[in-house]
Amino acid sequence: MKRKDEMPNRFLPREKHSHPLAYFPDYKSSIKRSPQKELLKFPTTPSEESGPVFSPSIIGELDNNLILNHADDGKSAIGQRLLVFGTVRDQHGRPIPDTLIEVWQANAGGRYRHKNETYLAALDPNFGGCGRMMTDANGNYEFHTIMPGAYPWPNGPNSWRPAHIHFSLFGEAFAQRLITQMYFEGDPLIGLCPIVAAIQDEKAVERLIAPLVMEKTVPMDCLAYRFDVVLRGREQTLFENRPEGL
Amino acid sequence: MKKNTLLEETASQTAGPYVHIGCVPNFAGLQTVTKTDLGNSLNIDAFGGQEITIQGKVYDGDGASVLDALIEIWQADGFGIYPRGNTDIAMPSNAYTGWGRCASNLETGEFIFKTIKPGKVIFNQDQYQAPHITFWIVARGINIGLQTRMYFAEEAEANKTDPVLSSIKDQSRVQTLIAEKTSNGNYRFDIHLQGAQETIFFDF
Prior knowledge:
The complex is a heterodimer of chains A (246) and B (204). Chain A is mostly beta strands.
């Protein structure tokens, strides 16, 4: 049996205030799909402190280029060309290297390529809306895509989702598993969206809104937006916690 | 004394109805990034443990099957070891992965995993956890991924001393975490998001 000092540290409890309410009636789908009983709180065990590891060999050359990865030869997706980039860290600010990120989004007209999708906006034959990548040794990632369109959805009589990109992240342990959405600076629909409003903490909402970063834009090519992600951290060992000077 | 300041977590948001595009693109009819969906197979042949099949559905508060859920499992091998172990070496593509992903069937809501029965997993230096499989469920309407565990009815002794199961105050709800054995090697594990049979979800 492993000795205690070989066991990985537990994860810090999830910060409730940083996450959306499970039951948020303004977002109608949550009414019948949110647990009504309190979640059972339990410290993480080795089952949550471990997680799947993916080999970089699963990533294809165009997986992180949504402008090209569904396009015919010589063609590209229609829309405002973007570079989306950022760093994945834990709560201690440590970068998380070699972790898988999956992204998906609507096309420039706000239409998803999905059989359940009924919005009248046109499909773009050269856009699929799916991408993936691994963070590098410093926790950084980037991908090229087009600005997704806003779209109407059947929540209220006239509900519109702000432009967004879905992100799925694995981190280094199953305790860190996260799906979220990135929004774009300056979008007036963010403040009107009940999916966003399910997050009660304004600061937590702000962290989902990617700013335009002029220094990373590519002249005559694409705009750039930064979306940094923070996943749960582990409890610090006594040694790491020791105040300086001791 | 220097205070340890922590960064705040990035908020969860719903996976939405089109989660398939990003997580199981082939299921969504997209061959853009991959020919087979990640998590489609746990490579159980590489381990050679006791093969099992787990089938189930996710039900909403009206008792209707959720047709757009995405379910992931994470589990130890037959010896109770998680595939990554203590190393940082990426899993070779032919190794048992311990991780599976399945979208509910768009018409029936049924999900299915072919895997192996996990062994007991270490809890601390004195104690083991009963064999169990971690489930993680996302869908439209689920604002933050729901985590639960599936345990095995035939492991009654181990279940009795399992540290997680025995911490549950309302023991009448424990049965929501125990899979039904439908035949040898076949289990049924339905997940109820609400209602009288609401599954126990964990905040680990």
